[in-house]
Amino acid sequence: MRWTQTFLYTQKENPSDADIVSQSLFVRAGFIKKLSSGIYYYSPLMLRAIRKLEAIIREEHEKIGAIEIMMPILHPRPLWEETGRWEEMGPGLLKLKNRNDHWFCLGATHEEACVDYVRNDLRSWRDLPKIIYQIQTKFRDEIRPRFGLLRGREFIMKDAYSFHATAEDAQKTYWLMYKTYQKIFNRLGITYRVVQADSGNIGGAINHEFQLLASAGEDALLVSEGSDFAANIEICEALPIGPEIQEPQKQLEKIHTPGVRTIQQLSDFLKLPPSRLVKTLFIHSEGVASTENTAQTFAILIRGDHELNLVKVKNYLGLSNPPRLLEDHEVTKVCGANPGSCGPIGLEIPILVDRSVAQMTNLIVGANQDDWHVINVNMYRDFTPHHIGDFRMAQEGDPDPTHPQYKLRSYRGIEVGHVFYLGTKYSEKMHLYYTTPEGHQKPVEMGCYGIGVTRTLQAIIEQSHDQDGMIWPIAVSPFQVHLCVLDIKDQPIMEWVEKMERDCEQAGIEILVDDRDERPGVKFKDADLLGFPYRINLGKKNYEKGMVEIIHRKTKEKVELPPQNAINYLKEKILCSLRTSENEKP
Ligand code: ATP
Ligand code: MG
After folding, report:
1. Rounded distance from Cα 452 to ligand 1 centre (Å)
2. Most Cβ neighbours (<10 Å): which of 263, 427, 502, 515?
């Protein structure tokens, strides 16, 4: 392909609204163009990268017998009401009305649609199992679309759904899909971790996220130094940490703490570390809680140096979305004091206590009276907990919950894939039942599996770039070779270029020829920005020597070879690299 024949415009300046490098590089290289917040055009080069990733995904899905279909994007409201997710998904689900006053939403995910697609046909155990997938545009009205394609309102996702007769079979496929995802991400040559995670609005009992490691990632991960335990901080179990010294219970005492509002101020005032203090936080659950927890407002006690984990609270309360923290004026209504002076004594709402707090004696908490605290507070003597559980964020240095002799280390990641074992959550609600060999009716067991196609491509560049631009792995690079023609007006050189293009085509090498009337410096800079694996320089000097110059984008290594040898060299390198990534063991 010739540069002048495609639609390719680069820019020197970083866009002012880019927050991270990959976003900036994608815009500068003309890969994406913003139409509106979280909504982007994909350029011809971007589309080539998308098609390559899609091809890898298709190849690996077909190897395990998955079947590709295409589902509608526009879904009628009653479909989503069958599972309760029309409400549960909240404002993230983009809803619209048609001329007949009927409500629709744009597909944010397709569990409902896929179950609907199969439900009249999958009737017998003989029809199972099936794995169905599609690659399609999804819509989510994200609160804060940002980081370019990493958090879009409109993005491409591969989503797969599997249907099984038994839980064992569904779980077997779950692990097969897990391996398939490893194969796909290994072929991209990225560094990633598979972590335990929260299942969010999708649900189900087992799930894992595939997290590409990058410091700009939105997700915090904790990974064991010694075992293979790895989890998203959202659900990472935090073992209770006991105090160094166990004191006997002392007499309750009220102390005057004028102007003290925060844990840090209290710590300075009492000359005690925050780990000796306890904060009292208040949450409100908007949704319907599980049957044991009918209350909506709860107090939660957390050690002064720990952070509250709202996803853990959500899961304990059986909510579909995390609860919210009360506003200051609401806190005052509940406990009679400002949030800096509240504590558990005398509260009329249920009190949840974090496991680390439960191990402490003689707690220091607010007195529920402005400017007063109480010391030597003891659980069961001075207040009664509703439940003791794991409500705090785990943090770096905490013990690995599976092998406490090891410590957890923290990383940041970009979630590129997520697999879920769903059980019968959707099939029961949507009446997807099959007949067993014995003639019984049973709900179909399910799994679902997603890869963010557009997010993955930008995430790759977030991990793979240098000060000059992007560094594409061969597997998804829009082109494999970038030929910079340095003297476009020179007839014999242009003949050489044409021959080279033909030879490349024959050898199966994808080449972009920069045939613009530009200075060499401009061409080299753009070649580095676009970041295809190999660059060839071809100008008068090379022509006279009968040699072309090949530069490896990543290592900047240079070799000089006669043109035909150059083609063989590139063919060998490219095929070899593609072959190794395909055969890579997980
Ligand atoms: P996140 O936690 O980042 O909001 P999610 O857990 O809601 O994502 P899933 O429902 O698991 O996302 O969707 C499957 C995959 O789709 C994700 O792993 C991610 O790669 C991709 N994805 C989800 N939301 C977006 C988005 N707003 N923009 C781009 N890709 C997305
Ligand atoms: Mg997810």
Report:
1. 6
2. 427
